[in-house]
């Protein structure tokens, strides 16, 4: 609906009137046929018709556009009386500033700001009404902290109100405690299930570690036994080495031997040193004791036969001693070499 034509002061051009309600345009829109309408009027018209209400040409909402600017300027310059002129407002303003004035007009009726109050009063008398409104609220004068309405002040009982408030708070607290209890129980159940799973997993890992530890202990015992046997073998080999060295020192010729015997003795001593080197390399075997004892027995028998036999000639004796000693030494060295190769 447009503005009532009787509210305007002075002449109003007919082009500024709505073609539907015949009042002055309010939020105007224009059709392609250049007829102007109020926004609310043309929207209601097009719900039932699809043509211009003035010349019946086809029309729809999408073809509407704002009013020409010169027409809007003419419309805004129109002088209009306040809508509250009947209550005593004598203000006449331009149509452009009408809404600003009506929002601040002292003669406009407004609702009371107190909750529940149905009274509407003029803006200029609002303060007087609020001072005596039955729905105005204020704090209890007895200090209970409640906000009271004027109509309820005579029936207010501080003790009863506080008891009711405490009961309400207690009920709310119990509800919250119950919710927290349920939530905590659900969390504890989930944590308990998680702990049971972790416990079973840790038990399986502990059992696996125990099995690994037992296997490592068995391996350590086997290694210690092997190390003990190896030390025993080394001790036996060292003992036999000492016995052989003593035996070899017994077989060395005296210092007053002839030069030929001394040379053969030196060669025999070099052969024995090489054999001793091979014997040191092969002393890790358990069968070395028997071989060394056999070699020592053969050397003792050779010495006994050499001492008990008739005294040979110097050349034959020298050759015999040289050949016997070399043969014995070579046999021992070959035997030890074969043992070292097998190892």
UniProtKB/TrEMBL annotation:
PROSITE patterns: ZF_RING_1, ZF_RING_2, ZF_TRAF. Pfam families: zf-C3HC4_2, zf-TRAF. Residues 18-56 form the RING-type domain. A zinc finger (TRAF-type) spans 100-144. Keywords: Coiled coil, Metal-binding, Zinc, Zinc-finger. Residues 289-308 have a biased composition (Low complexity). Residues 100-144 form the TRAF-type domain. GO terms for molecular function: zinc ion binding. Residues 159-201 form a coiled coil. One of its GO terms (biological process) is regulation of canonical NF-kappaB signal transduction. This is RING finger protein 151-like.
